[in-house]
Amino acid sequence: MEEMEFQRFVGPLKESLEAYRNEQKGKRGASELKKKDKEKKEDSEDPDKNREEENEEGERMEEEEEEEEEEEEEQQQNEEEQQQQQQNEEEQEEVES
């Protein structure tokens, strides 16, 4: 019975997680477009200065993406650990029965 109750939450949780990830990617993409538009305007004013800023910004974006990927991996690992723990508890209950 408990296994059935747990399993009915797994699907919606995974769907919510995927929707959240897609939303974050969309926000990141929109943000990048705005930054690129801004950079194009600045490039016409001072190309040398903007190249340095682009390099720094590119490095920051790479770091942010790596952090997000690490967070997603950690969250997925936590979900897997929770599922394993639930299965272990259910097995233990069956043994005790």
TrEMBL record:
Recorded superkingdom: Eukaryota
Signal peptide coordinates: none
Biased composition (Basic and acidic residues): 15-52
Gene Ontology molecular function: protein heterodimerization activity
InterPro entries attached to this UniProt entry: Histone-fold
Region (Disordered): 1-97
Matching Gene3D superfamilies: Histone, subunit A (1.10.20.10)
Composition-biased stretches (Acidic residues): 53-97
Protein name: DNA polymerase epsilon subunit 3
Organism: Python bivittatus (Burmese python)
Phylogenetic placement of the source organism: Eukaryota, Metazoa, Chordata, Craniata, Vertebrata
